[in-house]
Amino acid sequence: MGKALVVVESPSKARTIKRYLGKGFEVKATVGHVKDLPPREIGIDVDGGFELKYQVIRGKGKVIQGIREAAAGCERVFIGSDPDREGEAIAWHVAQELDGGGEGPEIFRVLFHEITRRGVEQAMREPGRLNQARYESQQARRALDRLVGYEISPLLWKKVRRGLSAGRVQSVAVRLVVDREREVQAFCSQEYWTVKARLAAAEPPEFEAQLVEVDGKKAELRCEADAMPVVEALRGLEVRVEGVASRTRARHAPPPFITSRLQQEANRFYRFSAKRTMALAQQLYEGIDVGVEGPTGLITYMRTDSTRVAAEALEEARAVIRSSYGEGYLPERPNVYRNSKTAQDAHEAIRPTHADWTPEKVRAFLDPDQLKLYTLIWRRFIASQMNPAIYDVTTADFVAGARFRLRASGSIQRFSGYREVYLERDREEEGGGGEGEPLPPLVDGQLLRRVAVEGIQAFTQPPPRFTEATLIKMLEEKGIGRPSTYAMILSTIQERKYVDRDQGRFVPTELGVAVTDILAESFPDIVDVRFTARMEEDLDRVEEGGLQRLDLLQGFWGGFTASLDRARTSMKDLKRAPLPTEEVCDRCGSPMVIKFGRNGEFLACSNFPECRNTMNFKRGEGGRIEPVRRASTGLTCPTHGKELVQRSGRFGPFLACPDYPACTYTAPVPTGLPCPRPGCGGELVERKSKKGRSFFRCSRATECEFVMFGQPVLRACPRCGNAFLQETRGRSRGVSCPNPSCDHRET
Questions:
Q1: Which of 20, 54, 285, 301 is catalytic?
Q2: Are residues 551 and 443 located together in one domain of the fold?
Q3: Containing structural domain, residue 223
Q4: pTM
Q5: SS (H, E, C) 168-237
């Protein structure tokens, strides 16, 4: 048997697989996609059956040539790109480049669900062929996204500002955030009161009961005037037990992770973004060097919507539970979980490849973030195969006089079950932790001692703004996107400045609101949740062979072109008619309007160009605009003698004359930190690179080349006495001295 070639996506995966396959195989990496649509044109022949005009990605010519040369001496080629739609597209493009008119090597498709010796050898024993339907589904998705983006985005450039983008899925995600914000702004908080009594029985502990009925009706206390008479009345009445009910409640283990749940829990536990979570999961999947074992994949494939687990993995998990926690924690049969109705069930749930590789066993080989994510995955998987937690729950009713009924509930955990290993952060945040205040022994008719009675004022709360975790949950519930797309969706809407974060929660920018509104008016289907969900279902049907790609695209294109024609003439033009406000220019008295620039939205005088007054603003309660007045700088313009103001530009903040740009004088914003280079005498100023990354350079840039990319830490260096330190990132996270002649470092 001649030598064979295996083609995968990642160089690190290639190294791991090469070690397992040995000398009879050569392994090459594509380093992602090798072909794509042209970057500066739509690349789709609409009139020719929606054929996609692919071309080799710039810089990938050498990669393809290397794969061709390696395949020239082989009888068989196994393409092992990721087992999803994108991986299938890569496999087809590689196969097309290797097609020798029937004279080339025989091409197989292999699916590596885990990068371990067992997983790799099993995949190589069961090679298949390229999946035409899955490739067609990917082509349909790529075409839809391209058509929407390349047809709508130029309209946004013309009507709002250049550089904007619209997306078939991202625009719906932004709409969800915008709609939630409008609910928050429109919410009218209502006052209400609760009355609670602190009670004591013959045996401890004391406990709290809440008023639930007044005169046989639900207690509804709207204000202090309603609540305080009830409080005074209860203080003078005896409280007697009237009904005690006890029951046992089982709280079952959660299923092993699917992609969306992993992203949600990683965000709740560690505040990882979805993008960060998937990057870490990719590293754990492709292979980590674990000492004598060498590079080994620690988790199964991380893009999945299925809770299914292989039989051998279940047995490994049960063995770990039996040896580490005891028979009492092990159910008679393995726990099995249902998939959602939309699940494709193409891959297993996300789990450790070896259940007995505990987090403690691999700790030495992982960086802190990798260890956090691996621990989360390992604990969730082991917990999913454990017995439920058991609680004794008691509910008691109490009467006070003839008018008032109170109620108290308490629970005690009798058996920890799966919670010995894993506590779901989402249930804890929602108040479902399971353990409440325990109640003392109570019997009907028993009189209780009042310790205290109080009325508590509260106000109804608006619906919470989305976090990454809750937005992913909403996208999943609505059927928008698929597991492999959530991280990209959230990343894109932030990079495009359609949403910002406020204390970890998404808030739409004025740009996001404006773009959503004009898209909803001109392209109602594109930002419609149900339409987008149906489109996802149609893409799944293409993959399953129940719908042809051409039929899907033709059905979409007919309605889309009609909307495009209307939008070209009727779409609101925010360049010609910026958004009006109630604010007035403090220079000329003209109304202020909201404009959209490269660096975000701002207030500008409508009397342009005669008056060039601009200022930043923020939204207050009820969506009211609050101008942000520029703080005093104490510096003056050498040309006009006016006090300099701070502005924001493409490369970060800077000082300028109030008459800018009529007066071209500018200066960097001082930080007050001296340049660390000995003998320089300059001062550090903050700037931004073309990619938006902040850095600090010396104000004497023409004479001093000092540049610092870490954030300053306002603490003197203990070794050389420099006035501050800097943060260092990457694998060597910590704090170091920026002085070039000092090697002080703290980890």
A1: 301
A2: no
A3: 191-252+390-459
A4: 0.81
A5: CCHHHHHHHHHHHHHHHHHCCCCEEEEEEEEEECCCCCCEEEEEEEECCEECCECCHHHHHHHHHHHHCC
